[in-house]
Amino acid sequence: MSTEADISMEVLLNSDNPDKVLKNMQPFLNLMMCYECALMEIETKLKILNQEFALVHKRNPFESIKCRLKKPVSIVEKLKKKGVDITLDNIQNNLTDIAGVRVICSFPEDIYVLSELLAKQDDIKVINTKDYIRNPKPNGYRSLHLIVEVPIFLSNEKKIMNVEVQFRTIAMDFWASLDHKLKYKKDNLKHPEIIAQELKKCADMSAAMDYKMQEIRNMLE
Ligand code: 0O2
User: 25: which residues sit within 8 A by CB, 6+ positions away?
Assistant: First the structure.
C-alpha cells in the first residue's frame, strides 16, 4: 500500500526540479537526518581511533575524512536505474550509499588496520565488503569499500542505518578524482580510450609507489 510520502515521491518523476520538491518533504528530510546522524557516528568512531593511535603509536592512521549525503537527484537517478519505485522504503532497502564516508590514509596497511578496528566494534555490522585494493577494477580503481550498519539513538527510537565507508590512500584518492573527471567528460573527448589507458598506467605506478613508501615507512619504524 502506498503511503502519503510514497505518493509525494511520485511527484519527483514529473518534476523539473527534484531537489526543490524533495527539500519540502518532511519524511524525506527525517530520513536524511537519520543518515546524517549515522555519518556522525562513523566519523566519531574513526576520529577516536585516530586520536588513540596518535597517542599510543605516534602516528595517524588516516590523513583526512570526508562525509557526504547523496544528493536527492542522484538518489532518484539510482532508483530509476535499478527499476524500482521512488519511495522512502525503496531508498532504505535498495540504496546502501546514501551516507558515505571517505577515509584517506597515507599507507595501504593503515587501511586494513583501521577498517578491521572499525568492523570489530560491537555495535557495527559489516554487511558487504568490496576490496578493490587486492582486486582493482579493470580501469585501475583501487579502494576498500565497506557497507556497515550502525545504530543511531533518537529521542524515542533506535534506528539501524547503512553507511558506505570507502578507505583509500592519498594516491588512490588523487587518481580517483582524475578518473571521475574522465567519466563526466568522456562524451566530449576525441580519444577517451587513450586517456583511459594512460590513467590505468598511472593507477599501477601510484600503487607501486604506495607499497614502496610503505616499505620505507616500515623500515623507519
Ligand atoms: P559517488 O558520487 O561517488 O557516490 P552500488 O553502489 O553497489 O549499487 P557499484 O557501482 O557496484 O554500485 O558500487 P561500487 O563498485 O562499490 O562503487 C561505489 C562508489 O565507489 C562509486 O559511487 C564511486 O564513489 C566509487 N567508484 C567505484 N568505481 C569507481 C571508478 O572506477 N572510478 C572512480 N573514480 N570511483 C569509483 P558512485 O555512486 O558512482 O558515485
Answer: 5, 8, 9
